[in-house]
From TrEMBL:
Key word Oxidoreductase present: yes
Signal sequence, renumbered to the chain: 1-31
Protein name per Swiss-Prot or TrEMBL: FAD-binding PCMH-type domain-containing protein
GO molecular function list: FAD binding; oxidoreductase activity
Keywords assigned: FAD, Flavoprotein, Oxidoreductase, Signal
Amino acid sequence: MLRPRLYQLVSFHFFLLHLLLSFDPATLVTATPQQQHHNPAPHDITTAQRACAELQTQLGASRIQTPSSPNPEYRNVAAGAWNRFNALSEPACVALPLSSADVQVVMKSIFKYSVRYAVQAGGHSAGAGWGSVDGGIVISFMNMRSVSYDPVRDVVTLQPGIRWGEALQELEPFGVAVLGGRLGNIGTGLLLGGGLSYLSNAHGFSVDALEEADVVLVSGEMVTATATNRYSDLFKALKGGANRFGIYDNSTSEALLKATADFINNVSDPKASLLSGFSTSFTNTTLTPINFITFFYAGTSPPPSIFAAFLALPNLGSSVGLHSYMEATASLGTGREGGGQGQLFGASAFASVEGKPATGTGTGAGQGIEDPTKDGVEFAILAFTAVMKSQVAVGRARGGNAIDAPLTNYALVQFHNQMPPGWDAVPRRVSEARRELLRKMVPTPGIPLYVNECDREQNVFSTYGGYEFLKRTYRKYDPTRFNVRYTDGPEGL
């Protein structure tokens, strides 16, 4: 069994990373119970083209590509996002930096010409416009994907274009692993929203491992932020501040819901992790419920009581045994599934009430998914992630983050729709049904939403315990509100 090491992480813009975590063999349990575009603000396309031309002179045509470029990278970036709604834009140019210095050059030109822009690391965002821009400049990190490990310093270096699955594969021979995400194809942008891994309850949000951050500000200036230097406020704001602070119904369902609520309310073992989902697939007028549960225990023998209620459910298939952290991360697929189709996320968060999650999380929410949207959605998922107070405590011990959740167990709830292949827009009936469901799924006051799973219209930051701090810090580092005016992202700043 490997001894867990301390971990360090260094980040730049959207971002150069150093992060470390070694892992123990882990028990993974997966059971499947039975039956169970945003339009950007107006911009001056001529100004954007002028900025692109200047950047081509400075960095060369291979690193700054336009629609007429002979190389394929422009089209790969413009049309290659996982979410179809982020693959319909036509940027004035795509920047493909090879270093942090290149990112500074690009950001200075964007700032100089007041051009709309977007940053794309893994390109997996469901927030339409958060990784693409029509007529502006997209900064893509597809050419910055290296991974290295320094055994002397016990530090892993990840460039910002790397995916978590790639990083885990490269690092496995060294016996170390990054916290990262729960799907292999997710990119490093996940960290700026906090980041959830199967080890979060023991080690905090993924970004709580951050030790140092080299951040490119909107002006193009690069600063190094730590928990103790003059940029300590910026350092903390990065932890949950998303892209605003630099480029840096059946009885089985009822039983599963009750077991999920009992876990969220009562389990305190930080080695245990839970993701449970209520999924409905739509084919013509046929509805097929498929529920799933993914458990993870960072040890060789979990206490039987932790997962007993889940294992007692009737199921179509399960996998129980010892798995590596890398195998666990691959258990739900690569994250490429559904790529090229329209994705819609929404979220809520609930504290515990009378032995189950708060009002709004029952099967009535599942019915809200099914009936109003069955002729305009390929499938829908309502997923619950358990956040333990141990996860919050670890983050506080490491200096805190902008999310600043209360010291208690709570549930993160994600509502995910996937549109049928080829759909470039969301029908009004689907939009209205989604808004109605999100309106009913009111978050428990004081419990923060998880920005990586939210709808673009949700004011996530206002649910953070550190909201006022976040607003002050944003005003300090972007006094002209350039980021809010010229790139899409979370509201509230």
